[in-house]
Amino acid sequence: MIAYLVRRVAGMFILLFLISVAVFFLFNLLPGDPARLTCGKACTPVVVEQNRKRLGYDKPPVEQYLIFVKGIFFGRVFSESSPVPVVCNAPCLGYSYTRHQQVLSLIQKAAPVTFFLAIGAFLLWIFAGLSLGIVAALNRGRWVDRLIMGISLIGYSLPSFFIGLVLLFFVVIKWQFLPYPNYISPFENPVQFFQTMLLPWIVLATLTAAFYMRLTRNQVLEVFGDDYVRTARAKGLPERTVVVKHALRAGLTPIVTAAGLDLAYLLGGAIISENIFSLPGLGALAVNSVVQSDLPLITGITLLTATIIIFANLIVDLLYAVVDPRVRIT
User: Fold this and answer.
1) Phi, psi of 93 (to 5 degrees)
2) Strand partners, 77
3) Which of 29, 34, 69, 319 is least enclosed by beta carbons within 10 angstroms?
4) CA distance 295 to 71
5) Nearest Cα to 75, choosing from 93, 94, 55, 89?
6) Alpha-carbon dihedral 196, 201, 204, 207, rounded to 10 degrees
7) d(CA 190, CA 241)
8) What is the number of other CB atoms lying within 10 angstroms of the CB of residue 209?
9) What is the rounded distance in angstroms from the CA atom of residue 197 to the CA atom of residue 184?
10) Phi, psi values for residue 96, rounded to 5°
């Protein structure tokens, strides 16, 4: 187990290094001059050249990357030649000259919104997906099974922007069951926070729960045919014990994999839902950074998202041995 953990952690750091190289050079060597994009209206050749030096784009690409990596671990200073240099303490992911703020501070402001959105949707889709999937498996071939699978097919087919716009129009605008979304921290106003996040949670949970219904049903039905499940039933164990302790636990491996990755993707930013419901999360921040050609911010968000997904893969692999006793990690 320890040797496996060491290998996985080492592989994670190697992969993070390769991704950082790819992301940095991809976004900093794109067609277009970042110095010209951030120089403002008075964009003369002299101003562009001065701006290039101020941003550090006059250095070779490899040197720029080394300075970027050094800033992550030790911090760095931007606009050193200007009267008021910008000090960016470690971990420094860059400085947004478009917004005149450090990239990490912008991410820190947006991350809690995406975190609450992802966790709330995750709890909804896990509960609905697992419970309805088990019910469908226990009623295989009956009307309950067909109804649940029909609902999952419809939910899986509808795009998130359609569900979001329909809910926003009917629930908020037409029927006025909820006020128009206006995000506020749950620690400041829990009621307004819940009213704002309820519809985004439902949108994300509807799409993903439909997938988990089908996945859970298939896994439980597959495990029902195994010898140890038939043995457990032959011993006279209650059906609830057979389903939860034996069938569901043994069939959780692909469900855990999918759940870990889906949650990681959401933590990276649920772009469509955040923009529909005006949530100031990582998804909305990423869209705005692309529109404004804010390359340092795009780079920082992409690296953060990649780190979350890679770390989620590690956690999922380690959970295999806990979820399924048949898995032995060596």
Assistant:
1) -95, 5
2) 87
3) 29
4) 16
5) 89
6) -130
7) 38
8) 26
9) 10
10) -90, 110
Q: Which of 50, 48, 105 is nearest to 81 (CA)?
A: 50
Which pLDDT does position 144 carry in this prediction? 93
- The rounded distance, in Å, linking the Cα atoms of 213 and 219 is 10
Q: What is d(CA 86, CA 130) in angstroms, rounded to the nearest whole number?
A: 50
pLDDT at 329 over 90: no
Backbone angles phi, psi at 5, to 5 degrees: -65, -40
Higher-scoring residue by pLDDT: 48, 31: 48
pLDDT tens-place string over residues 61-112? 888 889 889 999 898 888 776 677 888 888 888 888 788 889 999 999 999 9
**What is the token pair recorded at 92?**
């420094």
**∠ CA 177-179-183, rounded to 5°:** 135
What average pLDDT does the segment 220-237 reach? 77
Alpha carbon of residue 109 to chain centroid = 16
Instruction: Give me the pLDDT at residue 189, please.
Output: 92
Q: Are strands 76-78 and 86-88 parallel, antiparallel or unpaired?
A: antiparallel
Question: Please, are residues 125 and 212 in contact by the beta-carbon 8 Å criterion?
Answer: yes
CA separation for the pair 219, 26 (Å, rounded): 40
Residues 6+ apart with CB under 8 A from 183: 113, 193, 196, 197, 278, 279, 280
Q: Report which residue type is found at 156.
A: Y
Residue 260 · residue 315 · CB < 8 Å? yes
DSSP 89: P
SS3 of residue 62 by DSSP: helix
Give all domains of the chain, ordered by start, each with its CATH number: 33-92 (no CATH), 104-323 (1.10.3720.10)
Strand, helix or coil for residue 85: coil
